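**Discrete fold encoding**
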Amino acid sequence: MQESFEVHEGMRVTNNCRREIFKAIEDDAHILIVEYEGAGRTLKALTDLLKNNEKANYHYVTKFDDDGSYEVFQAILNLHLPHEKLKITGVHTDCCVYQTTLGLRDYFPKSKIEVISDACDSIWNASSKVNNHYCGISLMSRIDNVSIL
């Protein structure tokens, strides 16, 4: 949910990410904000929720390609974060979200991984009439130990 990605327009995904942030704060869960190097900052509407809540447990992670699983894996190990259950939101469901989910499944094969489908999105490819979001959700629904919510 960074400034340079267009899929957050319309606010549906941003609002659903806000919902997930509130749930995480309520559950005293840790939040990893994964930012793609060179793609701008995470949307202020989301980071302000964290900065303005003293109960929020959050950390920034920078990734350098579509698959951010290694950087998330390293952050979880280095910060000694729980990883029994991982929830994933984000943009480019068919690419970044998919590849990161696949990688995390390999790094944490015993973890329960949940992809929050309404807090993910991809750019609609009107010329090919392909909805990349639903393609990504379909791919992830076939991964062992991954639930699509």
Summary: The mean pLDDT is 89.
